[in-house]
Amino acid sequence: MKKILIPIVIILLIGVISFFCFFRKNDNDLKKVKVAEVTHSIFYTPQYVADALGYFEEEGLDVDIILTSGADKVTAAVLSGDVEIGFCGSEATIYVYNQGEKDYLVNFAGLTKRDGSFIVSREKYDNFTLNDMKGKTIIGGRIGVLLSNL
Length: 150
Prior knowledge:
By secondary structure, the chain is an alpha/beta fold. The chain has five helices and five strands, in the order H-E-H-H-E-H-E-H-E-E. 35% of the residues lie in helices and 14% in strands. The longest helix is centred in the first third of the chain and has 22 residues.
């Protein structure tokens, strides 16, 4: 009885494993998409969460998010075909269009309406006013933002 049962169990096991391997979503089935972002920002948090929780994969996408500091570099990456999507302000796309380029970018979405600067403190202020910043150091979030001591 054991002589017959062992081969049957092995065949069934191989069959079950093969079934799951065949119907399992293969990473090769995912559509690869490269996204260049101009800066890591708290405003892109939904994108980071979706990536971390595997929501892109559930939709059949293998999303590669890369930091490409500067709107000019994001624009160049999209125009060269190094990335499919670029997150940056519209100014770079306007510059390319105004230069008369035949191959120019098209903005199709606005993620933010204004610059995403905000003030963060290590101490709690119940009734914060700008006067509370006198004598404090302000550190900008990117190159070109004034570092100041008010």
